[in-house]
């Protein structure tokens, strides 16, 4: 008995569609089980598989509101902002504004004066992969001074003092997570484009991808979730000010899936830039890094991921280019263990 090509194509489509539904249902089941065990933590998850989107969410916007969290609810994505910034850096490479192996000296604001032994030492790729060796802002001290808005007091003068007083790159070539590194990348972008970081991210990402709920300024919107510290207390959304390129952005599952869709499409500007960010620029016995991306490989897969934690919310984004899937997990409480455990379970039981 012969099967027509049209029938075969239809059967393959139905099989693929059913497989996609099955993955989405399994992810929802994992998220639902977690919510039943932790009803105090609201969650929103977006998933894309071969360009097909699905969403699941649980919890309320806040304790006083009957409104449920959904795929359009706004969260702090915190340090996931860094991969948006690194994508813009890669776009600047594509625009021939910079090269990844350029030294940062000629691109820094005039307030920064590198000491002699630091000149022609640090490359743009070093900043983007957290191996510059530069000292960072003292988060512990800032949190002690203002637990609600710890980075609000960081100014251009603060950063200039840190950079200008640095006489030795103690960890140069070694991985050490850096907020100041991504702040400098944002300032380098501002110099080469002659625009503010806010204008650059809007022109290079938010507007072309129609990410209408990705916010950089006014966060007082109706669909904003409430942030909670690990003890359940209410936490304000961060005002990052000058350190914006390291953690400012607020977004939702819908827009982050839109970003993932663009990343996985090699024909988009964001997708072409993402391929640049995926190249390994740092490697040791425990870690591989692209530009802002953690790279994890096993015998069958290479996945790219980035987490984000503010004082009141936790998030993680992950994608597999070859298998064409991506996922964003957003929590309305700072709980890095929960978001990592959820990703691990979803990956190990559904996506691997």
TrEMBL record:
Range of residues in the leader sequence: 1-20
InterPro entries referenced in this protein's UniProt entry, alphabetically: Beta-lactam-related, Beta-lactam/transpept-like, Beta-lactamase-like_AB/R
Pfam families reported for this sequence: Beta-lactamase
Domain named Beta-lactamase-related: residues: 40-338
Keyword Hydrolase (UniProt): yes
Keyword Calcium: no
Record's keyword terms, sorted: Hydrolase, Signal
Domain of life: Bacteria
MF term (GO), any: hydrolase activity
PANTHER family listed in its UniProt record: BETA-LACTAMASE-LIKE 1-RELATED, PENICILLIN-BINDING PROTEIN
Family under the similarity heading: Belongs to the beta-lactamase family.
Protein name per the record: Serine hydrolase
